[in-house]
Amino acid sequence: MLVRGCSPRLRWDDTGEVKKITAVDAGLEPDICTFLSNNARLDRALQALALRSFLVSHTLTEGQPTYTLEPHSLRFVTQHISQNQRDKFSTQAWVLACQAFSSGQSLEPL
Fold this sequence. Notes:
Elements: H1 2-5, E1 9-12, E2 18-21, H2 30-37, H3 39-51, E3 55-59, E4 65-69, H4 71-80, H5 83-100
């Protein structure tokens, strides 16, 4: 989902024309998009978080890794970043999720 959320999506514009929208166009911060688009860097970061027991790594039947956030991770984050930062990252997570899943199924497959 993280990588897909950074990929351009096809959307209808206000005039009914199909337009390619990047994650940055949709509101994702460029630095976050750059980080998530770098597979090697993202893999290293996820592995580091798993080593510190913030995430649990699973492998899907197709061989794709997936991660689950450990409950203590949320408590740690809420204690160590400001409410403003939490709000910012929450908004960015919503933008990423909305960008990852197409709202126009006739335009592109999921």
